[in-house]
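Re: beginner question about structure tokens

> Can someone show what the tokenized structure looks like for a real chain? I only ever see the sequence side.

Sure, here's an example I had lying around. Input first:
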Amino acid sequence: MAKIITQILKESAQVDTQYLDEIPHPYDVQRGDLIDYYSTLTAVNSFHARALRIKTDCICNLGFDLISKNADNIKDMLKNINEQGQSFEEVISRVVLDYETTGNGYLEIVRNKAGIVSELYFCPSVLVTRRPRGAKTAFYYRNLCGFPVEFDRFKQNYNGYPELLDFTNYTQNDLYYGLPDWRGCVGDIELAYYATLYNQKFFLNSGVPDMALIVEGGQFDEDTENKIVSFFQTNIKGINNFHKTLYLPINDKDVKVRFEKLGMEREKEGSFDVLQSRCRDNILSAHGIPPRLAGVIASGSLGGGNEIQGQLKTFQEVVINPRQTLFENKLNRVLQAMDVDAQIKFQELDTDLQESLSTYYTMLTQAGVLTVNEARQELGYNDLPKESSTAQNLNLISQLQNIKKAL
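And the corresponding structure tokens:
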């Protein structure tokens, strides 16, 4: 029986969306280049910037272990990984922060003449574009002057081109580029910024809404009009000019002057606090950050030890661990190309807070802020039996009597 040989095509039939010989970044009509836009949002919201830094620190800045017989020697080598004098941790930290910010991170791989990786550099994602299938290289890097430099994807088999190792948070929204997981809170970041900007402009413009000066039944002479313009330009702006009064002597009895408010009435301060708090909570939730890590503590809440420990453990397992695994797997390939027999393992966040919390609540108990049973409840323990509480009260009375005698 004759064998039938079927040729299997190895290339996808999907058509790449491209502009000339590169694939543009994800784009939004209102925000423009999304990767570039996402990278600017750290400057407008402190909680967003803090969340990005917390995740970066927990992923790669808690230290790392090397599984190798020569771990100490290899760590010494990684203390200076490029001509800029940067360490391995510094370079990877910048890549991770870029990955968390834009959904894309790039590590430049530099080899020596023997083809062995000798240097590592951070490459900003805003300057990198991907190229379609069939292109000579996988990436373009564009410097500030716009000149393209070709980079190929990092491979074990070196082909002579500069190389990039890409870390991509792929989503269903874009076939080629990654997008950050927190992008659902972009509206909250913008809203919090606009609320802050509104308050700022309110005080910069004398603490009152904008208004129009309306003259009925005549007009100002040139000198009066110039004085009014000068007053509004120099004397009615800024919080130091709050509620300043403009005096207008009008000789014509038929001329009437009135002020018409153009802006909306200022909202009560409490409504802005609620708005800012809601935006803050949505931002931290989108990042998966426990509020306490961002310095947010609910009013009147001490927070039980078990609750804090549970939040940190969930954060480590659900948010941090998958990212550490992604970076470890790819960086181990780089170590192999450096002719290093080692594997990297990033250290995890210590979620066992029981000992330190016990010390903390002991101090609160001794200071009289909490009772013994209240402290035990915060730590997740059962209350002491009544006889134990009674015995403790008797001991306390005895101590007070001794103090009285001493006085």
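Each token stands for a local structural state, so reading them left to right follows the chain. Residues 87 and 251 are 77 Å apart (CA to CA).
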